[in-house]
Amino acid sequence: MIYKNMKNYCNIGDIRLVYYERGSGETLLLIHGNNMNSLMMKKMFNYLSKFYHVIV
Question: Are 22 and 54 in contact (CB under 8 A)?
């Protein structure tokens, strides 16, 4: 797992969502679409987390 030390879970009813967060400052939420998943945003996540609190 690429982000294993940043992995968090959010339970909503019977659904368990996985999200990753890192950085500080203003919060920036990255949401994938189509056939993507959060792991495909690795480069953006790593770069933007230097300037923002990023949640993927």
Answer: yes
Q: Which of 15, 23, 29, 17 is nearest to 7 (CA)?
A: 17
pLDDT tens for the chain, 56 residues long, are: 456 677 899 999 999 988 889 999 999 998 887 887 767 788 888 999 999 999 98
Predicted structure pTM score: 0.76
Domains held by the chain: number: 1
SS3 4: helix
Asked if residues 21 and 52 have their Cβ atoms less than 8 Å apart, the reply is no
Domain of 10 in residue numbering reads as 4-55
Pairing outcome for strands 7-12 and 27-29 = unpaired
